[in-house]
Amino acid sequence: MKEQLMPCSSVAVMDTLLAVTGGAIWGGCIGPRNASKQGLTGTARAFFLAKSVGKHGFICGATVGAYSATRCGIQRYRGKNDLHPSQRARLGASVKLPYFILRRVMNALIAGAVAGAAVAAGAGSRSWIQVAGAAALFSAISTASDYSKMKVLKRVLNRLLEAVLKIEMKRVQLLP
């Protein structure tokens, strides 16, 4: 039975809304400090704070939206077209976890590069060096983030497996 997956547009919208909220909060926190540095008071300060909230929310939302949509699309494409089931069976069970980790990290690597390049190009950068630098930076950050999540997940699963094995060993020893 094929599992039901959430559409990429829904994933992108949900992640974008979360990032817009975070960016708006960041803009609301850093705006008063920047307004004080500029010596703004009254309505000028209020407009500056509103602009800061909107700007930071938009930048964070656009960045995360581009990354999330790209990553979801790549995951869907690579999940269907990576290896044929007969090739997976030939590789054996011992290769499943590293292959899964590699595929997940590869999706983040590619999506980070695409999102970084899109954000740099959208920001008006005309220099290909800056676009390539942003792509490399986003790619490295997203890959490190995904890899660290996988390491934590692997540790949690190993501990869970150890606990289950201990319980099973005690149960087997109790039986005659």
TrEMBL record:
The lineage of its organism: Eukaryota, Viridiplantae, Streptophyta, Embryophyta, Tracheophyta. It is found in: Membrane. One of its GO terms (molecular function) is protein transmembrane transporter activity. GO terms for cellular component: TIM22 mitochondrial import inner membrane insertion complex. It is a multi-pass membrane protein. One of its GO terms (biological process) is protein insertion into mitochondrial inner membrane. This is Uncharacterized protein. Its main location: membrane. Keywords: Membrane, Transmembrane, Transmembrane helix. It comes from the Eukaryota. The chain crosses the membrane at residues 105-122, 128-147.
